[in-house]
Structures are given as C-alpha cells and as structure tokens.
Specification:
This protein has 4 domains: 208 residues, 3-Layer(aba) Sandwich (Rossmann fold), CATH 3.40.50.300; 181 residues, P-loop containing nucleotide triphosphate hydrolases (Rossmann fold); 107 residues, Arc Repressor Mutant, subunit A (Orthogonal Bundle), CATH 1.10.10; 71 residues, HRDC domain (DNA polymerase, domain 1, Orthogonal Bundle), CATH 1.10.150.80. It is an alpha/beta fold. It is built from 28 helices and 17 strands. The longest helix has 21 residues. The strands form 4 sheets. A 7-stranded parallel beta sheet has the order 3-4-2-5-6-1-7, with helices on both faces. It has a 6-stranded parallel beta sheet with strand order 8-13-12-9-11-10, sandwiched between helices. About 5% of the residues have low confidence. The structure holds adenosine-5'-diphosphate and zinc ion. Adenosine-5'-diphosphate (ADP) binds next to helix 4.
C-alpha cells in the first residue's frame, strides 16, 4: 500500500512546512497530521470529521506534497459547483495552483484548464461528479494516468453516495469508475456525516473497505444548543435574534419554500438583513443571495435545506430551525455550519406538535418501500427524543453518533450499540446519558420536570373509548377537549360527554396535555393518521403506557418573555466586535484592517474571509506590527499572503 518513493514527501517535517508556509498555521488540528501523512504516502482513507473540523487541509496538503514529489494532480470531487470558484480562489490566495471544471465555464475556459492540466500546471482540480464520469473527462484522466500524473482522488461530501445520507446524489454512485479504471491511485472520502449506516454505505459503494478510517470527535464545543417549544415561531426567532444576534450572520432553516419567503419578509420588516434561498428561486438569484451571504457582513439567510452544504463561511454566528428537520444527521449537519471559526455560536430550534405530525405524514405519504419508511421513522424518533429530552443535548447528540461525551471519538468501525441495520434508534430508547456540558439549554437551565404518566394514560384511554363507542377516530384538539371536560359543539354532537373519560383530566392545562400528546406521538405510543384528517389512533406501544409500565417525563413549559428588548439608541450600525480583547487603539487598527480587507476581497471577487479571517486581523491589530518581522508567525498568514499583503497591512496599521 505504501510506496517508498513517496516517503520523502510524506516526512512529517515536509508536511508541517507546507502547513506553515502555505496556509500559515502553526499546528495541525486533531487527526489532521495522521491523515495527511497516511494519504501523502499513498494510503486510502475515510475521513469523518464534523463541519469546521478542517477537512480541506486533509487533502490539500497531500495534494501539494505529492505534486512536489512529481505525482501530478489531485482531483477533488465535490457537488458544490456554486462554491468551486471561491474554493479555488482561496487556494490561489495561498499560492497554490488550482482550477475547476464545471458547467459555469465557457468552452474556451474549460479547454484552457484542460491544457494546463496536461502540462502538469495544476495541483488541485475541482470537478462535480457528473463531469468526472463523462467520456471526455475520462479520456483526459486516461492520458494523465498513462503518464502517472494522477496523484490522488479526494471525494468530498462522500455521504452523497448513500441513500441513508441526507443528501443522496445518484451521480456519486458512478464514481466507482475511479477505482475500477485507475486502480492504484490513492483515494480518500471525506464527510461530516457520521452515522454508522451512512459510513458503511460509503465504504461499500466507493469500495473503500481497506481504507484507513479516521474518525474525529464530533463534538462542537463552541456551539450552544437550544430547543424551545414552538408558540409563535417567527416572533420567538425575532426575539432570539434581537437578544443575542443583532448584526450577526446566521442561517434560518424552514421546511417549505413558501415559508422561507414569508419568514424572510417578516424578518426584513423587523429590520433584519434577511435574504431568501430555496430551489424554486431562479439560479441567478440563488447565486446572488449566496454571494451576498458570503461576501457581505451580517446577512441572515432564510432557506430550505437546499442551502448550506459546503458553505465555509467561518463566522456564521447562529443557525436556527423554525421547523424540525427530518433527522439528527440533518440537524447536526445544518447546525454545524455555525461557528466554524471556533468562536461562540448558537444552534436554536423551535419545535411543536405540528412538526411531529408533518414529518410523520411526509414519511407515510412517501412512495418509498415499507422497510425504508420504517428506517426513516426510526431516525425521526431519535430527533424527537432529542427535542423532548430534559438532559444534556450535547451528550445525546454525541451518543447518537456513537460517542460518549467527554470520551472523545469512538473507535473506528460502527459505533458501539449503534443503530440497527435499518438505522436510527427508537426515540424512547435513546439512553439518558447523565453528562452535563454546560453549554446547552438543559445544562444551563435545567428544566423542571413533571410526571405526565397519569395525563398520558387519560389521553390514551380517551382515544380508546372514542374508538370503541363510535368506531371513529378524532384529532388532537377534540381528544383534549374531552379529557378536559369541555362541552364544545363537536363534543356534544357526538355524545362524547357520556364517555367515562369525559373531564377526567380537567385539572390539566391544554399546554400540558399538548406536551404529553406530543411526546406520545414522538415515541410512537399514538399514531397520527395523515390520510384521515390527522386523527389519533392507538398503537402497539400504547399498551405499556396504559398499564403504567412506561413513565412519561415532561419538561415544564417555560413561558418565554414576550417583551422585546428595547432597541439600542444612537449609532444605527452595531459596533464592530473583535474576536479577542483589544484596547481602543487596537480596535481602531482592527476596523481599519477590516475596511481594507473588504476592498481587497471586492477587487478579487472573493469573500473577505478568504483574504484573512477575523481572528488573523485581530491578531495583527493586537500585535501592532512595525515591520515585516512582526507579522511572522501570526496564524493565517502564509508565505504568499505575507508577500502579497505585508506592505499594505503595515501601511493600514500605520507602520509605514
Ligand atoms: P470542514 O471542511 O471540515 O468543514 P474546513 O476545512 O473548511 O472545515 O476548515 C474549517 C476552518 O478551520 C477553516 O477556516 C480552516 O482554515 C481552519 N483550519 C483548518 N485546519 C486548521 C489548522 N490546522 N489550524 C488553524 N486553522 C485551521
Ligand atoms: Zn449540555
């Protein structure tokens, strides 16, 4: 597997030099070093790392090392056509020769890239899977292969190959051509999706069973998780933004295109700089909104899940879910887009009974086979259990990915006691993990818990009695009315005042019963019949609850403050916040550097963070450099950037 001729390029010192010189980073992070050594030496690899973990360097550094050792080009397969321009631009900024081939190029431009490729001028080539598997491209690869100029295949977003992943792309299946046709060229697959099923699928579909697996901890300690009960979701969101995130960049996920538009409109009305994004917008507008999100400061993108994969903007300060996603994989992937720079970030979700009903209905109505639907229900259940949880959210999230909080990543291979072959643990079986992270809502404000077992039994027996007496099923509202003894027209009309359970739960509030019902539906003890007006029915699992064998623990509903924060007076724009403490002269330098960076970014048609991260600018501002030497060793300034920008940076901070 390891060819000795590559060894010099794989020397840890060489790789470390590339890290420092090209990227300007003093140290590898987590498993990066082991990965780049292994891959540079020609080993195959599966890299599982959370979003923001630093996957790009894991193939970029081997690509540079192998190119220098004479092995030619690294092909990066990625579905992210809209982001390739910026990815390649970022490499150019670092002085690395890179290019992309995709449908946005003209014929001439593509031909030009092909020529450079054949001349051996390109270190990294980005292409989408449909391009990789077309005939013309394959013959190009054939030529490179005969010349031994294919250094590495890096398959990014590798979960797209799996139908269990949340972003299945059939084109990924055809990538088997790479190892069939070019056996011997090292391959690596990278993803931030970690569930066991998807992982096994990637290994099998891409024939990477013999590859070494590198599994990082999936913990994102800087992200604070909060899940709230949905009341008026959009108002709750507005309060969240006003309280914590004025002027911050964020992403708000909604279930449907229509809702995206409505929510974006409401936010704009409230003075938030929000833009909509969904697959129904024409592609020019989508690209424009994406560019504004990446290039401007403080944009809130309101989007369906069509937005976000590969978004490498480091300073997204919050990700909000106004509707519940389908499963924990999706939720984690989406929330992971917050805080890639490692600074404090927030994941906020509002969740309610209607979400549960909608998600179940979508599964029931999907054309998939029963076995597949069962798997989807299992995955949904696990997410519902997370939403209903009264203990540490982080510990539960990590447990879902087979990791116990505080113990680091699981051993390579399927996670212990992981999900069954059909994926997903049954929601109510997700173990209570007993750990506290100190950075989720439940750890910060442990919720009061009340015992809903009695209320649950009363609800279930009412559903049972209704069915027995009339042979009919009714929806949640009606069932709750009976339990609470309300003589509505409908209750009287159907003679339900005569039921023995009429009014047996008069002392419960509607909010309490709604919470109980939500949890019963979440754990499968009540089924919602989407084909028949969302009526409620008992299930196999109902019995255990009715017999009192299963306890129903509920979080006490906390009423959220309704008053909005009073608007700040004075200067309209929020004051510039630096990521580290700076004195006033330092802050002035930081502001000047940011203004300079915006100009450069605009000239180069790239997002500002591709030029320098905020953290790098702040470090420069703090150091108050007087000479080139003073700029050495600041994280994020590689040799090329030093050469290109040192003079201007020194001028901006007033040294020249
Ligand atoms: P991923 O693709 O895993 O989501 P990226 O490759 O985009 O993550 O990296 C996330 C951020 O971390 C980037 O801004 C990157 O520049 C930074 N980064 C990666 N590796 C290092 C390192 N060794 N030292 C400092 N910063 C790093
Ligand atoms: Zn916690």
């Amino acid at each position: 597997m390891i060819a000795n001729e590559y060894s010099s390029a794989a020397q840890p010192s060489t790789l470390h030099t590339i890290l420092q010189e090209v990227f300007g980073y003093p140290q590898f992070r987590g498993p990066q070093q082991a990965i780049v050594e292994h891959v540079t030496q020609g080993g195959d690899a599966l890299v599982l790392m959370p979003t923001g973990g630093g996957k790009s360097l894991c193939y970029q550094i081997p690509a540079i090392a192998r190119q220098r050792a004479g092995h030619g080009v690294t092909l990066v397969v990625s579905p992210l056509i809209a982001l390739m321009h910026d990815q390649v631009g970022a490499l150019h900024e670092a002085g690395v020769s890179a290019a992309f081939l995709n449908s946005t190029l003209t014929g001439d431009e593509a031909a030009n890239v092909e020529q450079r490729l054949l001349r051996g001028d390109i270190t990294l080539l980005y292409a989408a899977p449909e391009r990789v598997t077309n005939g013309r491209f394959l013959s190009l690869l054939d030529t490179l292969h005969t010349r031994s100029q294919l250094a590495l295949f890096a398959i990014d977003e590798a979960h797209c190959v799996s139908q269990w992943g949340h972003d299945f792309r059939p084109e990924y299946r055809a990538l088997t051509v790479l190892h069939e046709r070019y056996a011997g060229v090292p391959r690596m697959a990278l993803t931030a999706t970690a569930d066991a099923l998807t992982r096994e699928d990637i290994l099998e579909r891409l024939q990477l069973q013999d590859a070494r697996a590198f599994v990082s901890s999936f913990d994102r300690p800087n992200i604070r998780y909060t899940i709230v009960e949905k009341r008026e979701a959009v108002q709750q969101l507005l309060r969240f933004i006003e309280r914590e995130h004025e002027g911050d960049a964020g992403i708000v996920y909604c279930q449907s295109r229509k809702r995206v538009e409505e929510v974006a409109e409401t936010l704009v009305q409230a003075g938030v700089y929000a833009l909509p994004y969904h697959a129904g917008l024409d592609s020019r507008m989508r690209q424009d909104h994406q560019n504004r999100f990446l290039r401007e400061e403080g944009v809130v993108m309101v989007a369906t899940i069509a937005f976000g994969m590969g978004i490498d903007k480091p300073d997204v300060r919050f990700v909000a879910h106004l509707d519940m996603p389908k499963n924990i994989e999706g939720y984690y992937q989406e929330t992971g887009r917050a805080g890639r720079d490692g600074l404090p970030a927030y994941a906020w979700m509002a969740y309610g009974l209607q979400d549960v009903v909608n998600q179940r209905r979508m599964i029931d109505e999907s054309p998939a086979g029963e076995e597949f639907k069962q798997a989807l229900r299992g995955k949904l259940d696990a997410l519902l259990a997370l939403a209903e949880a009264t203990d540490c959210r982080r510990a539960r999230l990590l447990a879902y990915f087979g990791e116990s909080y505080g113990d680091g990543p699981p051993a390579a291979g399927p996670p212990p006691g992981g999900h069954g072959p059909l994926g997903g643990q049954r929601g109510h079986e997700v173990p209570s993990v007993g750990a506290t992270c100190g950075n989720c809502d439940n750890c910060l404000n442990p919720p009061d818990i009340w015992d809903g077992t009695d209320a649950a039994r009363k609800l279930l027996s009412t559903i049972y009695r209704i069915q027995q007496s009339s042979g009919m099923a009714f929806g949640a509202g009606h069932v709750m009315d009976i339990v609470r003894g309300k003589t509505t027209d409908k209750v009287t009309q159907h003679g339900h005042t005569a039921l023995s359970t009429f009014g047996i739960g008069a002392d419960f509030s509607e909010i309490q019963l709604r919470g109980v019902l939500r949890q019963l539906i979440a754990t499968g003890a009540v089924a919602v019949d989407a084909q028949a007006f969302n009526t409620l029915r008992l299930t196999e699992q109902s019995r255990a609850v009715l017999r009192g064998e299963v306890k129903v623990a509920l979080r006490e509903s906390v009423s959220t403050p309704t008053s909005r924060k009073t608007k700040k007076t004075g200067a309209g724009a929020a004051a510039i916040k630096a990521p580290i403490a700076l004195d006033s002269a330092g802050l002035a330098r930081y502001c000047a550097l940011k203004a300079w960076r915006s100009e450069v970014a605009r000239e180069h048609n790239l997002p500002a963070y591709v030029i320098f991260h905020d953290a790098t600018l702040a470090a420069i501002a703090k150091r108050a450099p007087q000479s080139l030497d003073d700029l050495q060793g600041i994280s994020g300034i590689g040799a090329k950037k030093l050469e290109a920008y040192a003079d201007e940076v020194l001028r901006v901070v007033g040294a020249l």
